[in-house]
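ok trying again, last paste got cut off:
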Amino acid sequence: MDHFFSPTLDELQRLTQRVVDETIAPRAAEVDEQGLWPAHSMAALGEAGLLGLQAPRSLGGHGQGLLALGALTEIIGRACPSSALCYGMHCVGTAVLAAKATPYQTETYLKPIAQGRHITTLALSERGSGVHFYLPATALHDEGGALRVRGTKQFITNGGHADSYVVSTVTAQGSETVGGDFSCVVLDARTEGLEWDEPWRGFGMRGNSSRALRIDARVPGQNLLGSQGDQAWYLFEVVTPYFLMAMAGTYLGIAGAAFEEAAGHVRGRRYAHNGESLADVETIQTRLAAMWIAVEKTRAMVREAGARGDAANPDALPYILACKADAGDTAVSVANDAMTLCGGMAYRDNSRIAQFLRDARASHVMSPTTDLLQLWTGRALLGLPLL
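nice, full thing came through this time. structure:
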């Protein structure tokens, strides 16, 4: 048992590992090779009650926070990074819904999530904003009690498969958007006026069904999350920490799995001419040691960030900002070293380590990018506003 974990979280880890071993891991190669959205993974996690990780206990959920999210996405990420990404984004969406849920939103969204029969996700990114996910152009029009949402979102994980989408918007007056008044709205998948593009074909994370969504939809006013103008609060108090923790856990899982693959290869390989094991080569021993140290340092950072965030520690922010950047760096570095140590066995098309290297590389381009997170971490350490 990890010293950070409560008995409840330790049990959730064991439950997640069982789901991974029985359902997720056996089809992980298929998800990557065919670019399949992992419906089997999400269904199994739902049947195990794990879709309700962030749903309130009063509804039958687990009421867990950042630490649990990082721990469970790490376990899933070791086996199938695409499944970890899809699950993590559902959990982030759940946390946003739970933050200020009305009775209607609790009954319509959170209760079925807690029961394992509703998948949600985020719709924040836009083509024109790039890494600045906090500057949406999608417009929110007030139509006398109802809301009109118009705009296009990009790179929506679980796109076309989720049951609801948490959409970031900016309030409009007439045909013009008005900067500064940001809001979040939840859209049901069955809402009229949603048009999906074809899934984006990525270099890595091939199974996440990342898609663009064109929106021109009228929704009830009760679909507004919180009050108009709350989006800035949602983004930096809920979306950002939960998203960073989910991604940090996922990339930590990749790094740990890449290390284990390399270590297993080294233990099992011998030179034909003299019978010497690769494990007896000092250069390989030191390389493996460096890989292990990197993984364990990152795991300590992720655990510390989660624990501080859950405790509302006033010093939590730089840890939370840094953990995804650090996990991404570690995943890329360790997967690359694993490729070197395993040689031609790893370099073959669609090898497990090749997949890890492709999946790990997504960490640096997924907003907030590594560069942006390092900037924010520095500003946080200096007591400066992030933006």
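cool. The chain has three domains: 7-119, 122-228, 232-381. The first helix runs from residue 7 to 24.
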